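Mods, move this if it's the wrong board.
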Amino acid sequence: MLALSTDSLKGYGLNRIFQIIKDAKYDGVDLAMDPRNFDTMNAQYVKTLSDQVGIPVLSIQAPIGANAKTIKEAVEMAKTLGTKVVVIQPPKFFDYKFIGWMKNEIPKIRQKENISIALENAPSKSFFGIIPEHAMGSVLDLKKFKHACLDTARLGQKKEDIIRVYKTLQKYMVCVHLSNVRAGTPYSPPEKGILPLESFLTKLKQDNFKGTISYKINGKFLEAGNDEKLMNSLAEQKRFYETYFTNVKIMKSEEEAKEGDQKLEK
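Not the wrong board. Structure tokens:
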């Protein structure tokens, strides 16, 4: 399922963003909750908007700097909207109480509410170039957390091998925030940058990835503010997704081929 993060269209009102995503013929919305934008925090308003425009919210991003209370609010919003994925950010490195809460309580909330609460890989920021700004942000941390969301731009900034990381997290991934890194600038369009996103998307399709693939691209690269150029840009991104994911044919394994032949013989 192809979504667009509302973060990509900051500057527009939320109702306009939903309509733009619908008009661009994406499958749904990836809602970034932002305390500075009250509409994004109002579950009933978002539900009304989703129903009126006729486009679902496929995933929800809890606010940056979220705590236990705001994560619970994101889960409640997901329940209201019928959304099955909530993406959260790694906690600050020294926030030991919150780290403990995440490790102990989130698995219980997942089980109770039947909602995937996925941890996203951390940005590359650090203190003094040594201590990471965030805890629980490594690939191994995401694996331990069981539910993961990959931000490809962050992988590119850290110069991590995207295919190797994907293979480690494959069985745990429920969401991807897709963008590239170009000339050191993150959140650029997928076809422009250092990451082999063509191969990555094709690998996802070959492995029958069922989660949400959400474009999270800086609005200036999408020509936000110019309606005609914006829609053309969104169409271009959709074609990239269709070329390297939707239209990729999955080759049957030798085992599956043999099973098919045996059925024909019977």
